[in-house]
Amino acid sequence: MKTIFAVFREYEGASEAVDALSQARQPDYRLNLIVEESVAKDWIADLDFNRAKVEKSAEAGEGKIRGLDAMLAGRQPVRVPDVGAVYSAGELASMIAQTAAAPGATDSGLSSSLQGFGVPEETAKTYVDEINGGSALFILRTEDERAPEAVRMLTDGGALRVDSFPR
């Protein structure tokens, strides 16, 4: 398995990439996102949360929320030392954020947590800088043979940076 990290500055590109990965049958449980709270709120400003709650629990017909909107709907921010409040969506992203927010986490909480998941120190610091600068960090776990296709979809969606580990 490879873990692919991609940095997105724009909602549209991130949303397009999530949609492309879903259409390529990447399971939703493998799609992850970490984004600073104010950026997430800007991205989902037009989302109807009442509709999102219904759709999280049952089918709501044609207006079903999918993709990036579904990932962010109903999330609560977690405060991490080196970023502040972040939204995390997906199992892996939630584990990374929760580890960074744990009592006793160092000032480099998110950076240290990313390193614990195999991201080199300098790359982890770069990701934290990107999140602090208004970008989102997308994370995907996928089979080795599917990694090149996933990297292409993320790049086509406008990712500023794409890395995969192990290399």
Textual characterization of the structure:
This protein has one domain (about 1-40, about 75-165). It is about 45% helix and about 20% strand. The chain has 8 helices and 6 strands; from the N terminus they run βαβαααββαααβαβ. A hairpin with a 3-residue loop joins strand 3 (about 80) and strand 4 (about 85-90). Helix 5 (about 90-100) packs across helix 6 and helix 6 packs across helix 7 (about 120-130). Mean pLDDT is about 85; it is low at about 50-60.
Largest sheet: 6 strands, antiparallel
Global shape: globular
Low-confidence stretches: 51-62
Helix content: 40-55%
Number of structural domains:
1
Distance between the termini: 11 Å
Please give the order of strands in the largest beta sheet. Answer: 3-4-2-5-1-6
Count of DSSP H/I helices? 8
Structural class: alpha+beta
Order of helices and strands: EHEHHHEEHHHEHE
- The proportion of residues in beta strands is 15-25%
Please give the number of β-strands: 6
The average pLDDT is: 86
What does the radius of gyration come to? 15 Å
